[in-house]
Amino acid sequence: MADRGDVLRLKRRLGFGAKGEAEAVIVGQATPLNAVLPTLLVVPLDPATGAYAEHPAALRISRQETGSNVDQMAVPWRLHALAANALASGPVGRLQPGTLASLDDLLKLVLGLRG
């Protein structure tokens, strides 16, 4: 089971992320739901050198947290629901609590939630 804030790799490309590196996503869905729903809500990651590097609604995340070779950008407005079996088993990274809180703020902005 994946936990909220885990960074997972996709088994096959969906068309985001850099060529040559497996696409990765951050689990954004509440952990208790991950064991009972057939899908996960995930936030795609894109290399920090890509089109989203300077976007104000994207979040730079360190390569250490994402388990990548380069820093990544979380792109919350590209939120996806993916079948759990589309993801490789086991996390490759995990967001630190402060990073996850910053991502939460951007998700609230994208979804029009305040609180």
Strand count, sense and closure of the main sheet?
Answer: 7 strands, antiparallel
Q: Give the H and E element order.
A: EEHEEHEEEH
- Roughly what percent helix? 10-25%
User: What is the CATH architecture term?
Assistant: Roll
- The figure for the number of domains is 1
Q: Strand pairing plus helix content: what structural class?
A: alpha+beta
Q: How much of the residues is beta strand, in percent?
A: 25-35%
What's the number of extended β-strand segments? 7
Rg of Cα set: 13 Å
Tally the helices: what do you get? 3
The overall pLDDT average reads: 88
The rounded distance between the terminal residues' Cα atoms is: 28 Å
Instruction: Kindly report the CATH topology.
Output: SH3 type barrels
- Taken from the alpha-carbon principal axes, the silhouette is globular
Low-pLDDT windows of residues? none
The CATH class, by name, is: Mainly Beta
Structural features, described:
This protein has 115 residues and is of the alpha+beta class. It has a single domain (6-111), classed as SH3 type barrels (Roll), CATH 2.30.30.110. The chain is 20% helix and 25% strand. The protein contains 3 helices and 7 strands, in the order ββαββαβββα. It has helices spanning 31-34, 63-66, 97-111, and strands at residues 6-9, 24-27, 39-47, 59-61, 72-74, 80-83, 93-94. Strands 1, 2, 3, 4, 5, 6 and 7 form a 7-stranded antiparallel β-sheet that branches. The radius of gyration is 13 Å and the shape is globular. The protein starts with 5 loop residues before the first strand and ends with a helix. The mean pLDDT is 88.
